[in-house]
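Reposting from the mailing list since nobody answered there.

I have sequence plus structure tokens for a pair of proteins and want to know whether others read the tokens the same way I do. The first protein:
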Amino acid sequence: MNYDGIFIKVVIIGFIGVVCFVASLLVLELVVERQDRFAEAKQEIAEKWGKEQFVAGPLIIIKKTTAEGISNNSYVLPQNLRYEIELIPEIRSRGIFKSVVYVSKLKASGSFAQQDVFSSVASNQNEVVFSLPITDTKGIENQFDLTWNGVKYPFQGGAGMIFQESSGLNAVVPVGRAQETIPFSFEIEFKGSEGISVAPVGKETVIAMFSSWPSPKFIGSYLPSEREISESGFSAEWKISSLGRPYPQTWEEGAVSPQQLIDSGAGVEFHEPVDGYDMTFRSVRYAILFIIITFATFFLFDVLLKIRIHPIQYLLIGSALSLFYVLLLSLSEQIGFLFAYITATTMIALMITLYSSFVLKSKKRAIPIFSLLVILYSYLYFVLRIEDYALLFGSLLLFIFLSVLMYTTRHIDWFALGKKEQIG
């Protein structure tokens, strides 16, 4: 018996499927290119508005110089520190790209131990500087003051000796021996983008943050001790002891690096729950499943109902399936991922269904095609939303499809079918 006819048909359909899958993969390059443009737009917004902020203080810098003229400063951290930070989010745009920025209203209070400060002071000539390193001070629009031991001192620009290459604020302050602790407080308002973190420099540090942004992502070395997230926003509080910190309460020049302070930070990012680029990227992974399932359905019509479907028709249907991802990517930039997905699904499902009514020579036969596509795209959206279980549900889809295919073709005599193809 000669089975070349049906075998060649399957090979041609398989080759067309591979071509269409490769065409779908080309969308990945578009996704990467659009992500790069989006990143550039976000960076441009951040450069003009304010970068992602990190507050690495406050700390006391006691300026010292050796007899040889070498800087040998001492650094002292607060005994206790409390931050209250309100983050007011805004959306800024560059063309079609949007980025989350914020205005931060920061209140800080705490105290330094007088013993820690004076044990580091070598003489009355040592200058004592209250230093507050901040990533990007161009987001500060007004003048703010430090209240030090009940007296106000204006902040100056610059973070101090250890952060010479970084921005920040500082104030020269006096110290006295009249009390065991030196209280301080200050309020500042500054702009930033994407997120904010704070170094837990106090021997005991409490960081309280709250915002109207409904989807925060907590970042850094510590998770909040308490948090509450709702559609109206979030609130979080960190309680951090110096026992879990990688640097001491006081140190001399060079003993602690700025990076150690940065690595110990805790904070939050304004997470966007649906990223159209990531979702499109992930959806392309399932392109081969969609092509196989759709082509197999048409092949069953071909075999069971003797409706001859030309390879060119398979190619056009596969091209429509590949076009879905381009539509999804372009529309998601304009109307958001959910509405883009619904729109792209409707357009592709209707186009293939209408074409199928001519290919299958019946409008009734095209209805199962429409139902299949709607089920597949609905299932894909469900899988995309539950990323942790994507592999499980993807394998279940394959199992269900293979089971249906085996059940549908259980009575087909493939040997006899090969004969008929040869006779025909």
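The second protein, same order (residues first, tokens after):
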Amino acid sequence: MTRRTFAKDTLIATAAAVVAGAAPSAAQSAQATSKEETNKAIVGRWFKEFWSNPWNPAIVDELAAPDMLLQYSLHAPRRGRADVKAFMVGFRAAFPDLSFAGAADLIAEGDYVVGRWVGGGTHTGPAFSDFLAGSLPAATGRKMHFTGTTVLRVVNGKIAEEVGLDDGVTALTQLGLIRRS
């Protein structure tokens, strides 16, 4: 009897909250879930085609907003499709095997999608001066492998922002740009 009373009381309280406007309607919940699932699918494609190996340069024109912001702690912020493409072209020239992959399920809330990742590559290409902490001479052969978390904002089906916090200390140490104490 206690279980039935509890369930009935919970149902009545939930219904009262909905009527009072304290909880979203079923239609609003379905719409939000649908939007969040769509945003997760967009970000999933972005991670696969922009950050994996091989990469698809056309994905920038398809999924990035014209004035997209790409910002990570190791690099200067990039803005706009052309700048984002130039960043990746240079990064992949220096690290031809560069690849990142998801380390957990994507989480979405409204316009935002959060992803955890792991990745890296081997510096076998030309000199690379994009790191804020210093430059690498050509083909050092050094490997980096590190993790991070990224928050992306999706607006009208396009990625407007990708802001990430990476384990830059690990990457820069592995590349010899900073030394362990």
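Reply #1 (J.P.):
I read it the same way you do. Confidence is low (pLDDT under 50) at residues 1-19.
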